[in-house]
């Protein structure tokens, strides 16, 4: 059993990580952080990601949250990565971050988010960052 979170070093990704960490602590379950590389990152972007993931690991260790950080090689579908990880770890919850959208944009959910919501083997918690 685990909590699976899709993470990017963005405000949406940090909101998802915060919510997932809270759920992992509340449920006493390990957290699996899934990071999907696009495959076309520059060396600078890879270095920034490595730094962000080091900070994530340090934060989780500081809170004594059992965790596993999985970096999925570029080219693999994000939704497929999260769903596959959830199935593999017998996840009880997937947490994803959603971008804020305009009123018209709210009619259209991102393709990855939609696939995760529809195909997930477990409940999905979709969070948005604080508006501040």
TrEMBL record:
* Regions that span the bilayer: none
Looking up CDD domains in the UniProt record yields: USP-like
Q: Which domain of life is it from?
A: Bacteria
Q: Which residues form the UspA domain?
A: 3-128
Which family, according to the similarity comment? Belongs to the universal stress protein A family.
Name of this chain's protein: Universal stress protein UspA
Q: Give the species this sequence originates from.
A: Cellulomonas pakistanensis
Top-level taxonomy: Bacteria, Bacillati, Actinomycetota, Actinomycetes, Micrococcales
């Amino acid at each position: 059993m685990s909590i699976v979170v899709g993470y990017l070093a963005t405000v949406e990704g940090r909101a998802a990580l915060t919510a997932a960490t809270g759920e992992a602590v509340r449920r006493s379950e390990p957290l699996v952080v899934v990071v999907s590389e696009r495959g076309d990152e520059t060396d600078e972007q890879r270095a920034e990601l490595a730094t962000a993931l080091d900070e994530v690991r340090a934060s989780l260790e500081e809170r004594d949250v059992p965790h596993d950080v999985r970096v999925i090689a570029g080219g693999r579908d994000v939704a497929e990565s999260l769903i596959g990880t959830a199935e593999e770890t017998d996840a009880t919850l997937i947490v994803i971050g959603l971008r804020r959208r305009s009123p018209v944009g709210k009619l259209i959910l991102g393709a990855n988010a939609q696939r995760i919501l529809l195909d997930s083997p477990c409940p999905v918690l979709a969070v948005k960052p604080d508006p501040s």
